[in-house]
Amino acid sequence: MVEAVQLVFILVSAIEVVTSLLVVTAKKLMWAAIWLALTLITMAGIYILFQSEFVAIIQIIVYAGAVPVVFLFGIMLTRTRAMEEVP
């Protein structure tokens, strides 16, 4: 019988795999950064399941909080016509 923790782990892992695939296949960089943030948040969820709360907090603050924000600022500040879609 599958325990509740194992079921949550399977669910969070499935979400993580799907969002990581969406990071790689995203056509727009903004969506890739958003999917990356969600991937990193689900990794923090797995750390919580492993009872590593400190590592989960650091994962959320540093990686899920700062890295996608830096990516989004870089995308917004370097936006040119070459990056826009062609109609």
Given as residue ranges, the uncertain stretches (5+ residues, pLDDT < 50) are none
Query: What portion of the residues fall into strands of 2 or more residues?
Result: under 5%
In the CATH scheme, what's the topology name?
Four Helix Bundle (Hemerythrin (Met), subunit A)
Count of alpha/pi helices: 3
The percent range for helix content is: over 70%
The Rg value, from CA coordinates, equals 16 Å
Q: Kindly state the mean pLDDT as a whole number?
A: 88
- The CATH class: Mainly Alpha
Please give the largest β-sheet.
none
Shape: flat
CATH superfamily: NADH-ubiquinone/plastoquinone oxidoreductase chain 6, subunit NuoJ
Number of domains: 1
Q: Give the second-level CATH assignment, the architecture.
A: Up-down Bundle
Would you report the number of β strands?
0
Show the helix and strand layout.
Layout: H1 4-25, H2 29-49, H3 53-77
Helix pairs in contact: 1-2, 2-3
Would you kindly provide a written description of the structure presented here, covering whatever features stand out?
The protein is an all-alpha fold and 87 residues long. The chain has one domain (4-79): NADH-ubiquinone/plastoquinone oxidoreductase chain 6, subunit NuoJ (Four Helix Bundle (Hemerythrin (Met), subunit A)). Helices cover 78% and strands 0% of the residues. It contains 3 helices and no strands. It has helices spanning 4-25, 29-49, 53-77. Helix 1 (4-25) runs antiparallel to helix 2 (29-49) and helix 2 (29-49) runs antiparallel to helix 3. The N and C termini lie far apart (54 Å). The model has no long low-confidence stretch (mean pLDDT 88).
